[in-house]
Every structure is written in C-alpha cells, then in structure tokens.
Amino acid sequence: MWGNGFIGFSTLANFANNGVEGIGYDIDEEIVETINEGSVPIDTLEHWLGFDTDELVQSGLMGATTDHTELLAEDVRVHFVCVPTERDGEPWAAPLRETVDRIRTGPWAETEESVLLIIESTLTPGMAEAVVRPTFEASEMVVGEDVFFGVAPRRDWFTSPDKSLSDIPRVFGGVDGQATEEMSDVLGIVTEDLIEATDHEHAEMVKSVENAYRHMGITLANQLARAYPDRDVREVLELAATKWNIPAYYPSVGVGGYCIPLSSKYVLSGATNEEELSLLREAVRSDNSQPAVVAEAVAGSSVETVTILGLAYKGDVKVDVLSPTIDLVEEFQRHGVDVRVNDPYFDDDYVEEKTGAASVDFPNGLTGTEAVIIAAGHRRYHYTQHDKIIDRLEECSLVLDSPRVWDDVDFRGSDIEYYYTGAKGWLGES
C-alpha cells in the first residue's frame, strides 16, 4: 500500500483481516510507528474499521515502513496506490508519478510474473493515461505483459460502519481484459459487490463525477439559503427530499475535505470541452464565496469576538483539508473580529498554525465570546451537558449551527439568537 492515510491504511487492514499479508509505505514516521504498534493511526477510524489490528500486526499479516524499497520485493505482486492527488486545493499528479516511477524500478521485468497496480486515489480524468502508462513505457516494462494497472476509486464514509470497504458497491476497471479480471480477483477478497466498468478511463471518472453531483447539490442548497433568508430553506429542502428521486442537501458554512470541493476541479481539468461545464465552474465560484458570506453576516451583527467549533471539515473525522474554518477565520479577521477556534482532534499548536487564530478549550473556552459558529458536528459538541454550554455563554448573543448539533439546547431565557444554516433569518434579516 503506497500511502497509509484513511484509504491506504484501511485497505491494508481489510486485506490483512482477510488473511492476505501486506505492507504499507508512508513518509510519515509517526503513522508507520503507530501501525507497527498495532494501533490505528487515525483518530475515529477504529469505530468505522470494526476490528482490532493489533493481532494482525503481531501475526505478521500487516506492517508499515518508511523505506519504499521494501515494497519492491519480488513476491509483492499487487500494489495499491493511495497517494494524495491534490495540493492547495488543486489537482496534483506529482505523488502518483513518483510512486509509479518507483514501482517500475522493481525486479518485475526480470521475472516471468507480472505485477498488478490498483489505483485507489481520486484522479483527474485522463491522469492514468497521462502519468501511469508513459511512466511504465519509459522503462523496459510492457503494459499488458509485465505490468497491468487499473482504477478502483473508494466511496467509503469513514464515520459510518455500514459504509465500509466490504459493504459499499465498488466500481473498477482495468487497462485491458486481463487487468480487469485480475483486479476482480484481488478486490473480491474484501468487497462482495463489484461493478465492472468498460475500462480504467471510465472507472477513473466515477469518483469525480459522483462528487461533482454532490457539489452542485450542496452549492444549490447554499445559494437557496442565501437567496431566501426570510424562509427556512432547510425545511423546504427536507420537504423536497420526501420525493423519491430527490436527495437531501443542506446549507452549511462551507464545504471542505479531499473530495467534494475538488471533484468539480478534477472534472473541469480533465474535460475535452471544458467550456461546456459552466454549471461546475459556477459551483466552484459560489462554494468558494460561502465563508465570506457567513462571516459578513455574523460580523454585521456587531460582534467583536467569535468562537468557531471545529477545524475538521466534518464531524468526528480528523481531516482539515480545505476546511471552511480556515477561510472563516481569515474573513472574520478581515472584518476586525477576534476569532478563536476549538477542535478536540487537533492540539493547540496545530490549530493556531493552520488557522492563525487562538486555540481554546471546550466548553470552558466559550466564556467571553459574543458569537459561536459550529462548523463540524463532533460528538463532543453534541453530547456535552447543555447547562455547561449555556453557563459559559453569558456574553454570547448569536449561535450559528451548521450541523444542527445544538438544536435541542434550550436557549430560552437567554439573550442568545440561535440559527442553523438556512433557517429563517440566519443571515441577519430577522
């Protein structure tokens, strides 16, 4: 497994749990050390994984290394590529190119056995043909003889145990028929419901297109909430979702993470006729403006201090990639507002370095704040006793709750105005 973040580690663990020996490579020494200690290197992933990895490590079925040459042993016949394909919010091919370049230096061409490369990373459409094939062809390896490759994007929802690697239908496609057949044999060890694409180029597009659909739906929900601030748009969206073919999307303070904010950019970047994708371009533009709209509305209520709960882009996932909180902090500071941030999954130094705002405890750090924005629905925010929250909000006049984790807190008797994103008056027009 090349890369041992959410995707790579879970692949490594699931195959080991099915009796297949594997080794993971990562540049992060702490991740490697944690895996080799038999622990899960990512907070909250234990719940989703559903089994203990300690025995798997002790039995030799799984391990990790910072030395990539250990993955080039002759008996390592299957390589999963789970490396980042984005940087600074844009598609990025360098880690994929470096990984494939390393794999081609293995002893494969000197043997009669072939090697199989399965790419799990989200790719810009066309990236496999632009990066993977030319890299192999630059060596003595022949695609379709010495090496086979394909794409099998991941769809897991890392906070729901019923949406895991073994449960979710999985799309895959190889560079030719033999590659597809070999991928089916390997992936079928863990995943029962496999869906075969025509080839790797069609499988490659699936993840980006799926998330582009979601990106546009979420962006429309945000735009409706901005266009109709005098209505409870979230209620309207919930009512619309009672129709059998309408999914439920809800307004938020902004979209973050590896997938959705980047999905439209992947699709745009790989398109033959990019000018035809005007809706996706508008979704990107509108989505990027959401934190500024929120900050302007809150700052317009004359508050001088704001506490944002959640640096992670969603509840109980320790990932802050493209977190809307980072943009919110910047926008509030531009308005002269003193901003504080809490996230139980990140230490104070990390929060302050990433956001440029002071890191505070929860709930004690709420004392003295004039407004609270809940950006991530962490369980800790939801299950904290309500009196401990209200007692520390004596100076607070506004709560804006994106994930609706406090909608059952009784703010009556206080001077606090409570809104969830998309509620009637949430932009200050009440």
Describe the structure.
There is one protein chain. The strands form 4 sheets. Strands 12-11-10-13-14-15 form a 6-stranded parallel sheet, with helices on one face. The chain has a 5-stranded mixed sheet with strand order 3-6-7-8-9, with helices on both faces. Strands 1-2 form a two-stranded parallel ribbon. The radius of gyration is 23 Å and the shape is globular. It contains 15 helices and 15 strands. The protein has helices spanning 6-17, 29-36, 45-49, 54-58, 94-103, 127-137, 177-187, 200-227, 233-240, 260-270, 278-299, 324-334, 348-355, 379-383, 386-391, and strands at residues 22-25, 62-65, 78-81, 86-87, 90-91, 115-119, 147-151, 170-174, 194-196, 305-309, 338-342, 358-359, 371-374, 398-401, 417-420. By secondary structure, it is of the alpha/beta class. It folds into 3 domains: 6-198, NAD(P)-binding Rossmann-like Domain (Rossmann fold), CATH 3.40.50.720; 207-283, Orthogonal Bundle (N-(1-d-carboxylethyl)-l-norvaline Dehydrogenase, domain 2), CATH 1.10.1040.10; 291-420, 3-Layer(aba) Sandwich (Rossmann fold).
Strands of the widest sheet, in order across it, are 12-11-10-13-14-15
Figure out the total of helices: 15
Distance between the termini: 53 Å
Strand proportion, as a percent range, falls in 5-15%
CATH T-level fold name of the largest domain: Rossmann fold
Give the domain tally. Answer: 3
Order of helices and strands: HEHHHEEEEHEHEEHEHHHHEHEHEEHHEE
Q: Do you know the CATH architecture of the largest domain?
A: 3-Layer(aba) Sandwich
Number of strands: 15
Mean pLDDT: 93
Report the biggest beta sheet as strand number plus sense, adding barrel if it closes: 6 strands, parallel
Radius of gyration: 23 Å
Unreliable residue stretches: none
